[in-house]
Design goal:
Blueprint (H helix, E strand, L loop, with lengths): L3 E7 L6 H13 L4 E6 L13 H12 L5 E3 L12 H11 L4 E7 H5 L7 H4 L4 E5 L12 H4 L2 H5 L2 E2 L2 H4 L7 E4 L8 H9 L5 H4 L1 H10 L5
Parallel strand pairs: 1-2, 1-4, 2-3, 4-5, 5-7, 6-7
């Protein structure tokens, strides 16, 4: 049977329960064998992380400790320069030949897709699953670049998980079942302000952040 592997990249600075909820939701709905959470080393489109690589990996390990199907994958740390999703997915394709890969994105990231490096070629190597809140579609955040690609992207959208995996790659499935409204920047601000974040990141991660003095003013 062909393995199904989810891919969720990000800064994870810090990882929070929204990330884990999205990963588990995609894993369950798409019947994925695993979801690989891949922390970005050096992004091409924004500033770097506040926490260092080891700290972000440790927080991810704490967040995924009770679920062996959520795998912390540090391959982007090996990049000499900026990390590009296309290169990462290609490296996974080489490592897991014959598998069907699914890139898991939030809606904001999906709307920025036309600005990504070799974004059209991503559809040659993976499917995409877009997780969003149905009551907040974010139409106001749609860029003109994205608007020009809407028809092309719509043509790839499928209405069921069965149809998603009918092809090796190239399809898009919208997961409008998530109630996730968290951001790492919001959590960093709360930590710097001394606010309670246990329910947002979990007690073990909160304790680790305190011990390492990450995000504190």
């Amino acid at each position: 049977m062909t393995a199904r592997i989810g891919i969720m990249g990000g800064m994870f600075d810090p990882v929070h329960r929204g990330h884990i909820t999205a990963a588990r939701l995609a894993k369950s709905l798409l019947d994925l064998d695993q979801v690989r959470l891949i922390p970005c080393s050096q992004p091409s489109h924004r500033d770097g992380a506040f926490a260092n690589q080891q700290q972000r990996s440790r927080m991810l390990a704490l967040a995924t400790a009770d679920d062996p199907q959520l795998v912390v994958d540090e391959r982007e740390y090996q990049c000499a320069g900026p990390s590009y999703t296309f290169d990462t997915v290609c490296s996974l394709q080489e490592e897991f030949p014959g598998s069907q890969l699914v890139l898991i994105l939030g809606l904001d990231s999906f709307r920025n897709l036309p600005g990504w490096y070799r974004w059209k070629e991503l559809f040659d190597v993976c499917h995409m699953a877009v997780v969003f809140r149905p009551d907040n579609p974010g139409e106001d955040k749609q860029s003109s670049r994205f608007a020009s690609c809407v028809e092309e992207l719509k043509s790839r959208e499928v209405s069921s998980v069965k149809r998603l995996f009918e092809n090796k790659s190239g399809n898009i499935y919208m997961i409008a079942e998530a109630n996730i409204e968290l951001s790492s920047s919001e959590i960093r601000h709360k930590i710097a302000s001394g606010e309670f974040v246990d329910s947002l990141v979990g007690r073990e991660i909160k304790n680790f952040i305190q011990t390492e003095k990450i995000y504190h003013r």
